[in-house]
């Protein structure tokens, strides 16, 4: 191959690589959800779940959450069930968590990048797959299935506590000074976001949800354990921290889960490596944008009460990224070193065409390479909770105040019933549904203020 041919091939490859926009479809799907165009997001998530090779596990949870937002509770249950099954091996004796789903940090190919590695759900996403799976089952009228998954959620969170511990990140062995500095710099940039969490797997909202189901099923001992663990992770409202929040005699209990916005999307950051002239690594980062926690209150039987922050999802995601950063940097620095070594070896051969070919190959590979910015992008930024155990039976237009604006949800309450109201607030569009956690009552749903009985 002559020099002109080499240049032509490289130009074509570089042009093709320059057209690759990995995150654009995801951004479009989230934007569609924000404006209420669920069909676009459903099509995107279904394709990711059914046709993606490396991102199938991610596609399953995206499809589950998108279908939940779209009010397709049966499909949401199916997708989230498949995602949980991929992370948990089931047997006749006991379930077993698969370590690969949160500990996969082995070096991958030195030619491609981290986007060609199979996506495994990190701990916080496993817990949210369980939480939203339980909510989807309740809204689909599958209370017994939700109760089974509540028991599985207890096992999973206890296992993560024993296995992950405090999630202390460690520098990769033998890491160069440049790679250590990258890890330190990015860890420092994430510290502000992770201030609201202790570990990358804890989900107080999931603990509380399991407690609600156990208590509604007449299992106060199991419920108390879940409430106690939720309170130990995050001090929240007095009803939760105090344990039992069963309905008062002759009354109903209403529990509100409020989801705010969507989690920020990761971006690709190019970081030069001073030790290897002309080479850089691509690592994921979160945008440095200010975040406002909505002030949420709900009108209950004894007046308006403030909701409490249950879990900061963006904080969990940032902590997870911080824990992964040493492995991410190690893999990318290894690729850069390999490229530099290959170029040096060819340069030593004295073959001009081989030198040019290797140089152009490295240029094309670098142009195509990008950080692995994959994460569960349709999760909320945060989740707040509110509870009133003394609601009189009847049909309510529950007023949820969010920073001065009011969201109204029609909710039927029966005596002795515990009902969960889930609200997903994307700002311009609000979605919601309610379902009984116990044997009393039926699911109901409203979209944009209009109730739809299922």
How much helicity do the residues have? 40-55%
Please indicate the percent range of residues in DSSP E strands (runs of 2 or more).
15-25%
Largest sheet: 7 strands, mixed
Uncertain spans, ≥5 residues at pLDDT below 50? 6-20, 103-110, 235-244, 445-454
Spell the H/E element sequence. HHHHHEEHHHHHHHEEEEEEHHEEEEEEE
Tell me the strand order in the biggest sheet. Answer: 8-9-3-12-13-14-15
Q: Say how many strands there are.
A: 15
Question: Main traits of this protein?
Answer:
four-stranded antiparallel beta sheet, alpha+beta, 15 strands, seven-stranded mixed beta sheet, 454 residues
Structural account:
The structure is a single chain. The chain is α+β, with helices and mostly antiparallel strands and 454 residues long. It has one domain. Helix content is 47%, strand content 20%. It contains 14 helices and 15 strands. It has helices at 3-18, 24-35, 38-51, 56-69, 73-87, 100-103, 123-139, 143-164, 177-190, 204-216, 220-233, 238-241, 313-349, 352-368; strands at residues 88-89, 96-97, 252-260, 267-272, 280-285, 296-300, 303-306, 308-312, 382-391, 394-402, 405-413, 418-425, 430-436, 444-447, 450-453. A 7-stranded mixed sheet has the order 8-9-3-12-13-14-15. Strands 7-6-10-11 form a 4-stranded antiparallel sheet, with no helix packed on it. It has a two-stranded antiparallel ribbon with strand order 1-2. Helix 3 packs antiparallel against helix 4 and helix 5 runs antiparallel to helix 7. Residues 6-20, 103-110, 235-244 and 445-454 have low confidence and may be disordered.
């Amino acid at each position: 191959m002559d020099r002109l041919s080499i240049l032509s091939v490289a130009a074509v490859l570089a042009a093709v690589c320059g057209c690759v926009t990995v995150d654009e479809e995801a951004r479009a799907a989230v934007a569609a959800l924000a404006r209420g165009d669920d069909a676009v997001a459903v099509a995107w998530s279904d394709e990711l779940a059914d046709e993606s090779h490396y991102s199938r596990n991610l596609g399953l949870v995206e499809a589950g959450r998108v279908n939940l937002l779209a009010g397709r509770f049966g499909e949401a249950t199916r997708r989230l069930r498949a995602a949980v099954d991929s992370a948990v091996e089931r047997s006749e004796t006991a379930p077993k968590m698969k370590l690969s789903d949160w500990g996969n940090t082995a070096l991958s190919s030195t030619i491609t990048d981290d986007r060609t590695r199979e996506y495994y759900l990190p701990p916080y996403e496993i817990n949210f797959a369980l939480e939203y799976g339980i909510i989807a089952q309740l809204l689909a009228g599958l209370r017994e299935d939700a109760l089974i998954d509540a028991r599985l959620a207890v096992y999973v969170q206890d296992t993560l506590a024993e296995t992950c511990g405090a999630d202390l990140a460690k520098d990769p062995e033998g890491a160069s000074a440049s790679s250590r500095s990258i890890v330190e710099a990015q860890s420092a940039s994430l510290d502000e976001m992770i201030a609201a969490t202790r570990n990358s797997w804890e989900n107080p909202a999931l603990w509380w949800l399991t407690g609600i189901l156990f208590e509604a099923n007449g299992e106060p001992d199991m419920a108390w354990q879940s409430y106690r663990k939720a309170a130990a992770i995050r001090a929240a409202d007095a009803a939760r921290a105090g344990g039992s929040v069963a309905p008062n005699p002759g009354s109903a209990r209403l529990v509100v889960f409020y989801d705010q916005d969507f989690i920020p999307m990761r971006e690709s950051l190019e970081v030069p490596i001073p030790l290897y002239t002309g080479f850089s690594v691509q690592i994921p980062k979160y945008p440095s944008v200010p975040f406002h926690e909505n002030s949420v209150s709900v009108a209950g039987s004894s007046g308006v009460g403030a909701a409490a922050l249950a879990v900061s999802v963006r904080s969990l995601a940032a902590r997870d990224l911080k824990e992964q950063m040493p492995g991410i940097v190690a893999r990318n620095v290894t690729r850069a070193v390999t490229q530099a070594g290959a170029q040096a070896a060819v340069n030593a051969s004295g073959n001009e065409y081989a030198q040019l070919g290797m140089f152009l190959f490295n240029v094309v590979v670098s142009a195509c390479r990008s950080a692995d910015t994959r994460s569960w992008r349709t999760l909320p930024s945060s989740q707040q909770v509110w509870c009133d155990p003394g609601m009189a039976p009847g049909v309510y237009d529950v007023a949820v105040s969010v920073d001065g604006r009011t969201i109204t949800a029609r909710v039927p309450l029966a005596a002795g019933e515990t009902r969960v109201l889930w609200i997903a607030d994307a700002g311009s569009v609000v979605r919601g549904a309610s379902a009984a956690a116990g044997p009393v009552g039926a699911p109901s749903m409203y979209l944009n203020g209009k109730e739809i009985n299922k």
